[in-house]
Amino acid sequence: MNEFDVIRKFSGLLPPAPAEVLVPIGDDCAVLRLGDGTWVAASDMLVSGRHFKGWAAPADVGYKAVAVNVSDVAAMGGIPRFVLVSGAAPDPEMALGVFEGVAEACGAFGVYPLGGDTTRADALTVDVAILGELGAAPVLRSGARPGDLLAVTGELGASAAGLLALEEGREGFGRLKKRHLRPLPRTEAGRAAAGLGVGAMIDLSDGLASDVRHVCEASGVGCRVDLDLLPVAHDARELAASLGRDPALLAATGGEDYELLVSAPERVLRTLAETVDIPVTVVGEIAGSGIDFRRGGDPVDHLSGWDHFA
Ligand SMILES: [Mg+2]
Hints:
The chain is α+β, with helices and mostly antiparallel strands. It folds into two domains: 14-134, CATH 3.30.1330.10; 141-299, PurM-like C-terminal domain (Phosphoribosyl-aminoimidazole Synthetase, Chain A, domain 2, Alpha-Beta Complex). Helices cover 35% and strands 26% of the residues. It is built from ten helices and 13 strands. The chain has helices at 3-12, 58-74, 92-109, 158-167, 174-181, 187-195, 208-219, 234-242, 247-253, 266-275, and strands at residues 21-23, 30-34, 37-47, 78-89, 112-120, 125-134, 149-153, 200-203, 223-226, 260-264, 280-286, 291-295, 298-299. The structure holds magnesium ion (MG). Residues 28, 72, 75, 202-203, 205 line the site of magnesium ion.
């Protein structure tokens, strides 16, 4: 069983959803109709030894736990509004350190903490639940159509390169380390994409190789992705190469970029690129029935991202 088997089996245990649930479990967020508003809800957890190690300060962990949840709201085209934060730590000082990072991130992303819980445990753990508000129809994973192009915001591979730098104890590469420890969720781009009516959207948490599969499976389509087109920054290439790692493969599989993957017709993507102040890079297209990664025109097989139970 993997994470997705667990989600599918859990979904099978649930009664029919109440009428307010417009989109149930299975997308970046669930979508709820509450009064006159439409809201999105999600949660995401970070666990010491699994998602981070001693190189992450407690405040970084708290900050990132909020940022990755904001990213899931961004992937629906929503405005992040409220969080509930629960944490376990070996001692109260470390718990406070986490909550200092939580408070900083809440300020940075304009979300308000409504409460949560805290307890003692051996492994530092932070779980954040988020509520966001929608100003346009939610963008789901299931809306990719043949003929759409696939584009990503910002850059890929910086977080994975930063993680390598942290794990290898490399001096320097501060920008990459920061991208790993304190991701930049793409809320503005997500809202702009939703306003333009893009077909499908997901945030790149598990890695492009896995996340593009999620979009294609939900949409019942295939895709072709050209690894030569992935936007990988110079410092990420340099770090990867210095460790004998292939920069494009790192960017495709590394995960935790918290950029957005968007499927839309070319003219919509062009407008999006003109609207937002970060790069929007076409990396492939919706076509065929399988997931086809190419490099120099040749197929690249067996690419996958993060496995939650590996
Ligand atoms: Mg997500």
